[in-house]
Amino acid sequence: MTQDGQYLILKRSDRVRTMKELWAGVSGIIEGGEDPLYRAKKEILEETSITENQITLVRAASQMRIDSPQYANHEWLIFPFLFSVDKPKIRLNWENSEYRWISPSDMTKFQTVPSLEKVLASLL
User: Fold this and answer.
1) May I ask the CATH class of domain 2-123?
2) For the chain, percent helix, then strand, then coil, each to nearest 5?
3) pLDDT in tens, 47-66
4) Domain ranges, ordered by start, for the chain
5) Rounded to an integer, what is the distance from CA 25 to the centroid of its chain?
6) Facing residues of 82 across strands?
7) Are 13 and 93 in contact (CB under 8 A)?
8) DSSP assignment of 78-112, as one string?
9) Which one of 5, 11, 61, 84 has the largest count of C-beta atoms within 10 Å of its C-beta?
């Protein structure tokens, strides 16, 4: 998610199953035959309380496969989307403990989930 040239990252809480306390974008698991764009909007609402009418899809990138460091012989299938938003009021759910708006060059200052920089770069 982007606002005024800054990008939203969320710190995953210690209550989630994977990637605890690492910085990430809004993320989730596609259930059944769900459309990835539908799931992305649903996850934004769940994790930040930002509604669909507050966001605008800026870009969608090709799906990516990312190796999972936590599970042997496992990879994540990522569907990258970039949405813009204008001065949202963010209320985090239990999945994340903090959020920051950062520039892409600041990404290296944070301990992130695998390939977050690569995913963001695919959207810029």
Assistant:
1) alpha beta
2) 25, 30, 45
3) 999 999 999 999 999 988 87
4) 2-123
5) 2
6) 59
7) no
8) E--EEEEESS------TTEEEEEEE-GGGGGGS-B
9) 11
